[in-house]
Amino acid sequence: MRQIYLLVFSLFCLFSMNGQIAKLNEFSKGKLYSTSIIKDSRNNIKGYFLLFMSDKIAKETYELEYVVLDENLVKVTNGFISEMKYESWLIKAEGVKVNATLSEDNKLLLDFRDNVTSDGFISAYGFDFGRYRILDLKTNELSQPFIFNNNELFVNPVFDRKNTNWKKNQTEYFQPYDKVGLVVNVEGLLNEEDVTERYLKCYDGDLKEKWKYVYQVNPKNDLKRLIYLKSDEDVIVMLNQKAKVRGKIYVEYKRGFSILLVDSKTGKQQSEFVYPEIDKYSYTMECKLTKDKIYLMGNYYAGKLVDDVKNIGWYCFVLDKSTGNLLSKDYLKWESLAGKLDITKKGYVKKEGYLYTHNMLLQENGDVIVVTEAFINKPVTTNNLYFFKLDNKLAFKEVFEVSKFRNKLSGSNAFSGTIKRAGAFDFIDYQDLGDNEYLFFFNDNEKKSNKKKKSTHYGIVSYSDGEFKKQTLELKTETSTISAYNAKQGYILLVEDFEGQKPLEYRLEKINY
């Protein structure tokens, strides 16, 4: 998220590509409110959604302009909408933020939310003053706003932003499920005292109901929490957790969870897979789908909590996609890496720290590439990167160590999950180039250093033809600071900051690999 925040800040300036420079104020004269990076299901950047405030037209009501850029930073379309935000003593919002999610039919689900601050009597935490629209990128048609509240879909609802009516200004969460449709997960946290059932409801592109799947009836203290993992035209894979709720917040997850397989066309539950030995282990997970299999991969830990110091290694469970039956389960324990890496059975690499798993990438032949970064909890220190290649049984094949700058945050202490959410790791992102080829990007600088004005280093690791290779991008400058971000396939986005002497400049640079 740190990279996204920096991108939001720097988008006030200019874009530069192939020697052509365009000022952002040529796209809009308004104040930039929010941006969202648009990615496809393979994690590749396909464009950017920009939201500007053009004018205040009434109390708590604003005219906003949206601008869509393609992956080449070229303007695709724009339009104007009217939106409200809270500005009362009870609830205050500094702006409207947006998140854009791309579906396979080239439509954007736009999630608009009041950017509620802590200045008001009610803070942002736990309140979802959101509304949705659908933008068809083929026709530039923008739908009316819609929300789901109190078990009902409201199209073009009235937003009055009155303090006495704040419950009606909230919504349950919508999400596009790949190859399925637009799905709302009705958890009932907006009016939990009246909840009789919790369910998923699927809609088509015209907001016509396709199916409804009730996953819990008469929920009380022990609730099911369903989290979307993956889907295709055959099956939806949902993580099913047991939890307790206080107010509108999940406060406790109970031991044990399972995977629910739901039919993509009918919404009927097909089967349930319960994770093994949940009395002994906890798990993190990534999900991958193939034509006939479901892959569940991640780290597993001793005990009931995901704890960095109790990390045992990696696992991979393979399920039959049609039945949910377990076909195979494989593990890699850290001690099996003895002789290949100086690592303890708890996953601590000598002089480097514990390994945090950023990604587990399934190859067509069943091999797995694992992207990890060594870290220390106290003080938070991010050290070298390790790229592992494992076979289809998680047996070790290769490790590629990448040395980089060791960033240390003095006086800090945090678990890996917190470090990740804060954007404090140096790994930036990856590109899936297809044909089992990837590009990985990472920061190779001291994060709080004035030396970056002279020279800035970013690392690129390529995986092609079964080999890892590293290259360093050195950006030298005397009058500015240059930052790098992930961009479209085969490119990196460079942002040059002249510290107010002139506008920022953007350019796309092709990567040779």
UniProtKB/TrEMBL annotation:
<protein>
    <submittedName>
        <fullName>DUF6770 family protein</fullName>
    </submittedName>
</protein>
<dbReference type="InterPro" id="IPR046661">
    <property type="entry name" value="DUF6770"/>
</dbReference>
<dbReference type="Pfam" id="PF20559">
    <property type="entry name" value="DUF6770"/>
</dbReference>
